[in-house]
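Researcher: I'd like a candidate sequence for this fold, 231 residues long. If you have to choose between options at a position, lean toward the conservative one.
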């Protein structure tokens, strides 16, 4: 059986430190790009290179060390906070965890990080879990960040705080953001608009708005929905 490819003719280059945003409707292919970048799925044709090196020539372990993935739902497993941050990497010292926690203003963490995370008990809010996942990301100091709808589950006040910390974490790192809310990626260096696995528009927010195409339509729709909610 011949399956149709999910992604077709997608091509982009992220310069060091740039932010690339992937936008598009459901099933347009945003997560698929992330999945092949992380090598959660293998891909057929095409090439993905990091600093000129084909990602299939690097071990999966090494590849995933280069990339910090921050997902919508931060997952905590049974154990203390420190082990949740370390993820079995014993080389990460308590001091390093403390510094990373301070960096993202997870200030209550240093005192608490030997306390247990008990699955299914609401010990930590979505915002706190997100902060713990930021600490986890920071201790590994990845050159590349992937943010998949990283702030979707938060209340407005927590979101403002998380966005502020994210901005700090992104500094100096090449970032790929999957965003549903276009207001959060207006400052991206490049925006790729995906539709049915293809890259149908590519540019900055201002360029895409002036093109009055698909992005413009999505932006207009979201802005009008937001203003209705405010009324
Ligand atoms: N493991 C898979 N095997 C085959 N097809 C898949 C697989 N995962 C996703 N797809 C298909 O690939 C296409 C793109 O899906 P993808 O999840 O990348 O979209 P998306 O833009 O991330 O959507 P959403 O906004 O809902 O997360 C869809 O048609 C989907 O059905």
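Model: Candidate sequence:
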């Amino acid at each position: 059986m011949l399956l149709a490819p999910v992604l077709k003719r997608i091509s982009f280059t992220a310069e060091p430190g740039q932010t690339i945003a992937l936008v598009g409707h459901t099933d347009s292919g945003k997560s698929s790009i992330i999945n092949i970048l992380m090598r959660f799925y293998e891909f057929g044709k095409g090439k993905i290179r990091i600093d000129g090196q084909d990602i299939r020539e690097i071990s999966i372990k090494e590849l995933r060390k280069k990339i910090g993935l921050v997902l919508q739902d931060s997952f905590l497993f049974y154990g203390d906070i420190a082990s949740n941050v370390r993820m079995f990497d014993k080389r990460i010292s308590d001091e390093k965890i403390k510094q990373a926690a301070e960096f993202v203003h997870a200030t209550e963490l240093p005192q608490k990080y030997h306390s247990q995370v008990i699955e299914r008990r609401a010990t930590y809010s979505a915002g706190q879990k997100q902060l713990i996942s930021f600490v986890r990301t920071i201790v590994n100091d990845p050159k590349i960040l992937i943010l998949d709808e990283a702030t979707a589950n938060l209340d407005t006040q927590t979101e403002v705080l998380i966005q502020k910390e994210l901005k700090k974490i992104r500094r100096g790192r090449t970032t790929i953001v999957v965003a549903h809310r276009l207001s959060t990626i207006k400052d991206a260096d490049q925006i790729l608009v995906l539709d049915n696995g293809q890259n149908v528009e590519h540019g900055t927010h201002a360029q895409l708005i002036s093109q009055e195409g698909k992005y413009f339509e999505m932006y207009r729709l979201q802005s009008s929905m937001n203003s209705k909610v405010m009324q």
